[in-house]
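Aim 2 progress update. The chain analyzed this quarter is reproduced below.
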Amino acid sequence: MVSSGLTKNSKRPTFEIKMPYLRVANVFFDYIDLADVQTIGVQESEIEKTLLKKGDVLFVEGNGSPDQIGRVAVWDGQLEPMLHQNHIIKARPDERKVLPRYCMYFFMTQAGRSQILSSAKTTSGLYTLSLSKIAGFELPLAPLEEQQRFLQLVEQSDKSKYLLQSVAEAFTIKRNYRRL
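Predicted structure tokens:
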């Protein structure tokens, strides 16, 4: 299932129900920044459609930079309830077939980014994706066990990169100290 979110307009502040929502400024590649979460007025009928659930894959729908269009992250339920703005497109994968983080990592690869960039339309310098384009994206489906193994490898790789970076920083700091 692929869906859009709330459109910000001048009537929203007058709505009685106020809820937190994600904006483009919150969604990055493999990261959701919750340091600046704002609230928006909603009607009760809008909540179910725009409510985020753990495992939702979020795509940034528009950006002036081709490098930033289609930034993708997975909602982990860090703050609930949470809605999303219309400039964030939500894909809810069938987790019996595809793991959300596997999906996210695919769309961060060259093959995934290629689909995003070839689907992005530009008007006056703003690149945009549509619901139908995202719904039509293809990703290679490996068996769930292989997807899980892939995610474990990514996690191990991230830990190794962090360890190497820490060692390199420590070495650099030690090298900058000299005896008098």
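Helices lie at 44-50, 100-106, 110-119, 131-135, 144-176. Residues 2-141 form a domain with the Adenine-n6-DNA-methyltransferase TaqI; Chain A, domain 2 fold (CATH 3.90.220.20). These observations will guide the mutagenesis experiments scheduled for the next reporting period.
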